[in-house]
Design a protein that fits this description.
single chain, mainly beta, 18-stranded mixed β-sheet, 3 helices, 36 strands
Length: about 400
């Protein structure tokens, strides 16, 4: 008998027998309107872990231990303890290891049994791969060396201190991202997405919530169907789009592609503006070190250029209804072409640089244009407005950085 027990222990440690043998049944108790059954157990250390529940919270935390420990809390809304016991018996806890993966799940032979389970799991920090799936509940994964994959049909998601990449999907909750060192992909249906530090490539998508990012290190794509986008710092190129909100970008050490159908666009600084387009909003561009393409149907545009001869390229700044104010370095080699399509007078264009003006049409309704070759001319800067004013202000390279 003693030899048999020792043999089972050896097989369990080797991961040969199903680790579900370690799971123990728990005592049933009443908590509020629900009945619960709590089960605790351990599994041998595995590089991969998957936790799956038909409804409930999943929390996976990296710790200092060598193995995997878990606490599972089954819950159901039953009329009596006997009914709760019967339901719990039909939905069994599976805790097993197969190959290099450990699995925790709630499984049963019958469908539509009103039983869910919350899982609280502690794993070694060295875990290479963690998957958490729930049909309805919050998910937390933190402090692991590998990648994190999360899917919930209706709950909030929090991940932090992830050494690898992360993929997050929720059909109805907030997404809160701390530090992710690998590639990040987060998708939410109507959810707000917040990111503290994305050190790899990042893709963020929301069908109707705001997106807020403190820092990304490489490249980012952020899109929302009905919210604002706010990014404080970016270490590379960024592509941003919203169907009904404003875009606010801080210091971007790359190029910017930004589009909105219902708000303004603000950029603190960027290497270049590939595109900034709004159908109805003000555009403010500060400290742009390269070419600019900015257009809005209805709104003013303010742009500060700090480019030099090497970084400058052909640019366009235009608005349908609004004014355009551009700050240009005095030493920039550029050819300026400015047009006000419906101007009250030649004074619709004001420039600190010498310009040649032309006007056409009747007074008060004609077109006024101005052209200049600054420092011998260079790649063109085209500035236009259908109805408004154009102002071109000359500043020194040092002064341009503060506007």
């Amino acid at each position: 008998m003693t030899m048999k027990i020792k043999s089972i222990q050896v097989l369990l440690l080797a991961g040969v027998l199903p680790a579900a043998l370690l799971a123990q049944g728990g005592k049933i108790s009443r908590q509020g309107r629900d009945w619960v059954e709590e089960i605790s157990g351990t599994l041998p250390a595995s590089p991969r872990l998957k936790v799956e529940t038909p409804g409930g919270v999943v929390e996976i935390r990296g710790g200092d231990g060598a193995g995997i420990s878990y606490r599972a809390v089954k819950h159901t809304h039953a009329r009596s303890e006997e009914e709760a016991h019967r339901r719990f018996a039909q939905m069994r806890l599976e805790a097993r290891r197969s190959g290099d993966q450990a699995d925790l799940s709630l499984e049963g032979s019958e469908r539509h049994i009103d039983v869910g389970a919350d899982f609280f799991v502690t794993v070694p920090k060295s875990l290479a791969h963690a998957v958490a799936e729930t049909a309805g509940g919050n998910v937390l994964i933190e402090n692991i060396a590998g990648e994190a994959i999360v899917a919930t049909a209706g709950g909030n998601v929090r991940i932090d201190q992830i050494g690898g990449g992360a993929k997050v999907e929720t059909a109805g909750g907030l997404i809160d991202i701390g530090t992710v060192r690998g590639r990040l992909n987060a998708q939410g249906s109507g959810a707000r997405i917040t990111v503290k530090d994305a050190q790899g490539e990042a893709v963020l998508e929301s069908s109707g919530g705001d997106i807020s990012v403190e820092n990304y290190a490489r490249t980012m794509r952020a899109e929302t169907a009905g919210g604002n986008v706010d990014v404080k710092h970016g270490g590379g190129d960024i592509r941003v789009g919203t169907a009904g909100g404003s875009i606010r970008l801080g210091t971007i050490e790359g190029t910017v592609f930004a589009e909105t159908n219902g708000g303004g666009i603000e950029v603190g600084s960027a290497r270049a503006i590939i595109r900034a387009e709004s159908t109805a909003g003000i555009i403010r561009l500060g400290r742009i070190a390269g070419p600019v393409r900015a257009e809005t149907v209805n709104g003013n545009i303010f742009a500060t250029v700090v480019a030099d001869r090497a970084s400058w390229g052909e640019s366009l700044i235009g608005t349908g209804m609004g004014d355009v104010v551009v700050y240009l370095p005095a030493n920039l080699a550029v050819t300026i072409q400015a047009i006000v399509e419906s101007a009250g007078s030649r004074g619709a264009i004001r420039s600190d640089f010498p310009m040649v003006f032309q006007s056409s049409g009747s007074r008060g309704h004609g077109e006024v244009s101005g052209a200049a070759q600054i420092n011998g001319g260079g790649p063109a800067l085209k500035i236009r407005t259908t109805m408004g004013r154009i102002e071109i202000i000359k500043v020194s390279a040092a002064d341009a950085s503060i506007h």
